[in-house]
Specification:
about 230 residues; Nucleotidyltransferase, domain 5
Length: about 230
């Protein structure tokens, strides 16, 4: 495997009630663990966010209030967390825009539910940060936004992108999006696709570090440079 792992790398993706990482809530967690021997295993949990899911969010992920809330809904994150935290273990983390969105949302929910999760000693690799840093001439008006759908197309090819067929919430602000779950992507499928993108990035860019520590430093430096 082109990526050298000293311990598992866990890619995670969240579906939420909105984009406010401090005040919105998680409704679905998808985790995909990449082991040093190349094996993948995954887990996905839907949870009751404790607040209503706005229609605008439902248009994005297809999860309705009735799916997670009420007597026959899902447990709150506080009750579902044990299995998720056990799966995470001491693994390093990866994702697509994980630094700017998923991780801040996750940490806010950990604090809200008084759950014990520490980032101490964990490394973080962000495939979107690599995308931005390595493709500075990307034209969003011609090629589209740097979202996961376009990352799969750009790095993994048309066949895999067609199979992925991710719903793009940016299209018309989510208007006229079918709520048919068969046409939706789950959090765990997005996390799995992100790992595919990350491995494809390593194949494409020979100058990228081949270890998680080096990739984490690359992402940290790229973000600092983008703000300077």
């Amino acid at each position: 495997m082109i990526l050298q792992l000293a311990r598992p790398l866990v890619c995670f993706d969240l579906e939420t009630t909105g984009l406010d990482t401090a005040n919105d809530r998680i409704v679905e967690v998808g985790l995909v663990k990449l082991h040093p021997d190349g094996r993948r295993e995954s887990i996905q949990k839907r949870v009751d966010p404790g607040i209503d899911i706005p229609e605008s969010a439902t248009r994005i992920h297809g999860i309705r209030n009735d799916d997670v809330r009420g007597l026959f809904g899902e447990p709150p994150l506080s009750r579902a967390a044990d299995e998720l935290l056990e799966f995470l273990g001491d693994g390093d983390l990866a994702g697509f825009n994980v630094i700017g969105y998923d991780l801040p949302m996750w940490m806010a929910e950990m604090a809200r539910h008084q759950l014990d999760f520490s980032m101490e000693g964990r490394l973080v690799v962000d495939a979107r940060t690599i995308f931005v840093a390595k493709e500075p001439s990307w034209d969003r008006f011609i090629q589209g936004p740097r979202n996961l759908n376009n990352a799969v197309l750009h790095f993994c090819g048309r066949d895999q992108a067609a199979d992925f067929a991710q719903r793009d919430a940016a299209d018309e602000g989510g208007a006229n999006v079918s709520l048919d779950d068969a046409n939706r992507h789950s959090a765990v499928k997005d996390a799995d696709a992100t790992l595919d993108v990350l491995l494809a990035q390593l194949e494409r860019y020979e100058d990228l570090p081949r270890d998680v520590a080096g990739l984490a430093r690359f992402c940290e430096n790229a973000l600092q440079n983008s703000m300077s």
